[in-house]
Amino acid sequence: MVLSGTLPYGPLAFWDVWLRMTLIFYSHTFNDISSSRRRYRSRKLARFSSRTFPSPGVSILRPLKGLDTNLYENLESTFKQEYSNYEIIFSVADENDQALFVAQALMNRYPGVQATIITGMLVNL
Fold first, then answer.
1. How far apart are CA 90 and CA 83, in angstroms?
2. Which pTM value belongs to this model?
C-alpha cells in the first residue's frame, strides 16, 4: 500500500531522498544569494558632503613589494574612496620595485588625489 506523498521504498529510495534534499538545499541557497545581490546592488552609495560635516584628514599607508595579482585594481580602489579628505602614502623598499610603476601610473591617472611615494627601508640596529 503506497500513500501519495510518501517516500518510495527499495534500493533507490536513499538516492531519491538525497537528490530531493540536495535540490531543496541548493534552491534555497541560490535564492538567498540572488536576493542578497539584488538588495546590495540597489543600495545607493552614501555621499558625504564636506560642507555639512567637516571630515578629519586620513592617511592611507600602502606598503608595496613586487607585482601581485590584481595589484592595479586593488590600488585603484584606494583612489576611488568616498571619503573626502584623505592622502595615500605608498612605501617601497627598493626604488626598482615593479610595483612602483603601477603606483606611479595610478597617480598620473588620478591627479586630484593627494598621493606620495616613499622609497627606502629603515633598519633598526
1. 18
2. 0.56
